[in-house]
Each structure stands twice: as C-alpha cells, then as structure tokens.
Amino acid sequence: MFHPDTVALTIPYLLSGLKVTLLLAILIVPLAFGVGTLVAIVANSKSRPARIIAYLYIDFFRAFPPLVLIIFVFYALPFLGLRLPEIPAFVLAMTLNGSAYFAEIVRAGLAAVPKGQYEAAQATGLNGFQVLTYVVLPQALKKVRPPLLSNVLELAKATSLASVVAIAELLRTARIAQGAVYDPTPLLMAALVYLVMFWPFVRLLSLIEKRQSFKPA
Q1: What is the CATH number of the domain that holds 141?
Q2: Which tens digit of pLDDT belongs to each residue from 160-186?
Q3: How many domains does the structure of the chain reveal?
Q4: What pTM, to 2 d.p., does this model score?
C-alpha cells in the first residue's frame, strides 16, 4: 500500500472526484437551507392549513433515510414519467431530505424569539416581511447556529452517497482507482481527503458550540 506509483496513479482520480463532491455540496447546501427556511416560516405562520402542510413536509422527508430517498427519486420517478439525470436526481433527493432538517432547526429558532421582538419591530413601522427579514430571522438563526452548521456538515458528508447512482464523486472515483491498482490505497487516500476536508469544520463547530453554551440566555 501507498507505493509511490500507486499514489501517483490514484491522485488524478481523486482530484476528479473531489471536484464533483465539492460541486454537489455547493449545490445542495444552499438549496436545502433556502427551502428549509421557507418551510420553517410557513410552519410558524398564522394559517393552520399552511402549518399542517409544513409539518407534514418536515416529518415526511425526515422519516426517509437519505439513501432510500435517493433510490426512490432516481429509480422510481421514471415510472411516474419524470426521469432526471444522475446529478439533478441526487441534488433533488438530498435537498428534500436536508431541507426538512433545516426547517425543523429554523422553526425552533423562530419559536425561541420572544414575541416582544415582533411587537417592538412592528411599532417602528416595519411591515411583516421586514420584521421577519431584518429582526426575527437573524435572531432565530443565531440561536440555532450550532445545529445549522452541524446539518451543513452532515449534508456535505452525505455527498458520498452519490456513488449509488453512479456519480463520479470522491468515493466512486476511489473505487474506480482501486480497480486499476488492485489494492486499497485509493480508498485510504479518499478517507484521508475526507478527513482533511471535514476535520477543520468539526473543530470550528465544536468551538462555536462551546462559546454559545457559555453565553447567558
């Protein structure tokens, strides 16, 4: 293992897969956060039917294991007349799953903002959209920053599931390289790449959690 020739042959595969992994993360995380935030706002609205729909969305997609959802979107939707290419299908599945978790996190943050903040903002003449955008939502996101970042990390790590639908991300290209060199070096190198990518983020998340836990309520 880790013979110089093997490593030299493996690196181009991993670089190619790393680009796809980063692309998937860049697409999925903002989409999931945006959709999740909208669902959370609906879940905190005054309309009971809208709240019910939002809660059903959250519960339904949180109940689906990501792998099952990916398989369903890619393999089952064609039977309903909707056939998506590999990357859009994967992005859709992970956006649905990730947005449900983001929605629950943001909803909890919105519920934690005191009602007085709404009233004080409205007293200054702001309309409902401005109150939510400039006053309530920033406070809510700040209150739930650690779980938000934790979900970002989980979504980024879940890009490794893309190999299920034959997307040439980091893990899949490592497996292809393994077939070319006939030893586990590519898989071990891929594991090291994941560690280098995510370890700093984990340490940052731990630091934020510690700092927030010491802040007065």
Answers
A1: 1.10.3720.10
A2: 999 888 898 999 999 999 888 888 889
A3: 1
A4: 0.88
